[in-house]
Model the fold of this input.
Amino acid sequence: MPAPSVVPHHSALPLVVTWTADGRAVRILDQRALPEHEAYLDIAELRDACDAIRTLAVRGAPAIGVFAAMVLATIAEQGRGDAYAQRDQIRAAAAQLRATRPTAVNLAWAIDRTLAVLLRVDAHDVLGTTQALRAEADAIRAEDAAMCRAIGEHGASLLGAGTSVLTHCNAGALATAGIGTALAPMYVAHERGVRVHVFANETRPLRQGARLTAWELARAGVSATVLPDGAAAGLLASGRVALVLVGADRIAVNGDTANKVGTYGVALAARAHGVPFYVAAPASTFDGVTPHGAGIPIEERDARELAPLPQGVAVWNPAFDITPASLITGFITDRGILHSPFADGANGVRPPPPRLGV
Amino acid sequence: MPAPSVVPHHSALPLVVTWTADGRAVRILDQRALPEHEAYLDIAELRDACDAIRTLAVRGAPAIGVFAAMVLATIAEQGRGDAYAQRDQIRAAAAQLRATRPTAVNLAWAIDRTLAVLLRVDAHDVLGTTQALRAEADAIRAEDAAMCRAIGEHGASLLGAGTSVLTHCNAGALATAGIGTALAPMYVAHERGVRVHVFANETRPLRQGARLTAWELARAGVSATVLPDGAAAGLLASGRVALVLVGADRIAVNGDTANKVGTYGVALAARAHGVPFYVAAPASTFDGVTPHGAGIPIEERDARELAPLPQGVAVWNPAFDITPASLITGFITDRGILHSPFADGANGVRPPPPRLGV
Done:
């Protein structure tokens, strides 16, 4: 089993998804407790893994893909007694993990990639299956970190001294196995001594901008200002923002992009004021199958995320919205800054493998 | 002293600003405690009045204007011993009340109108001054309620059975001495048996949409759905909203409108999807002096409204933003549905009296 390539991380940033020391569980930074507490959870059971994704203990499209691959490797290890039982358990776990969050395509992509490994390994070779899944999970993790770093290098070319960037939600180190996607260019610029400023939308209802983005930027020494989501349009009107940089949960073939709810309104305001709007994402976020945004399922989350509320009132709480490709200046990827549409294999963006129907 | 004309209120809605039974204090519904508790505060001291405005125990541009006039009448009553002291106290109180919130022009308008009374009454007539200020405060209050009712009647013409309206913050009964401004058309429609639906943006950071708008709509039996501010653009894209209806804190001569932060982004999204965007406001909200939105001061509020936050992070927390007149379909006023610009006296909108330099 080849050792995964080692990608330089950022010393001030936490590792969100790792193995425990004995390699029998996946250790995650519990993001529900941030910024007050930096606590870690060791996950070895499928039920706990699904709960961790659903309750956003681990979140961010790239990170949940990496996490799912590592959980499947853990389950393969646990099922080493019987070849048939092992594969049944892996496939059942894959189906449950896939159902936890419908919008982020990285989750389905990582699961599909893990299941494809099963086709390459002798079904009776229980140890070989276990080792292959572990190697694939390590590869997905190392590749994600490497893609983050490459996104940061490409995106840093957009930033000069004193550049102010507006971002929404958290597409940083906490959302990936590396230095993030939308925040990676700022970390790379900062490493090079280029001082930038980040405006972070609070991002209701779960406040990932205020709790997570501001936390990791402060930790890395990058200057940050939090604002209420409603203030973003006025900020863009004020001329204080040079560019908008957000992450993505899924990018359709035509470039329409699903990202945290609120992104679309920011894109409209950026366009109204001539501010460039970039989406940063690794290859795993590009859905090479869904033709446009209308085909992307949008997860609705629990009304209690908006509590407290008066009696007798309904709630609409979609987790994501769709920003049309026409509002997106460019896509900052590990292959460079690209432009839609993204036909299969076009633009050097690797489409995901075909769905395996699990 | 003529009795103020009585305006029919809505039986299910609270009265936000009234006199106490003995007439020696102003009773307000403490909106900081809603929706959990419906508690009232009796305010007789200037310091408490300023605190009530600053901490948003009483809020909403029309309501704070009414409240300020009633507080000045209360202070006139307390200063009945000495003619010179009485007028000094009134003028000093006016200056302090005026400074509490810079954006809402109704506050300055009501104070100017109260001070103008002093010019009409013999300075030595302490009792006459007291009675005149009380009468003016009652008139301002009754007029506000009447203007709300008229706004509701005019605005209801835009609503048919099943119409869905999106609103931001609270421009309802809780923001006025009557049935509200932006919500008044829905109350009038509801009284006529026309069933409408209201989508209410949560409105961070103080959640006046979720806490106040949803509360008063539910109380009046109007169907309501709360959504995070970031979801508004996606909601408008979905085609489920027939029109947007918001209040205003100040309307410049050219029609540029200051309203709760987030309004501008909603207006941009409404325009992108061809959804009509209306501002509802009484005459007291029209600033006949400031030529355009760039001249309207924008209040910044305490960073703690966005707590909890990580260490070392800055906050930008403007209370308002400016929606340019070009995005506003029409202004629903007590005189009908009007269009900008609003030169002094144009369109039947009464400009405020000249500033008295207090």
Summary: The two ends of chain A are 26 Å apart (CA to CA). Chain A touches chain B through 52 residues (CB under 8 Å).
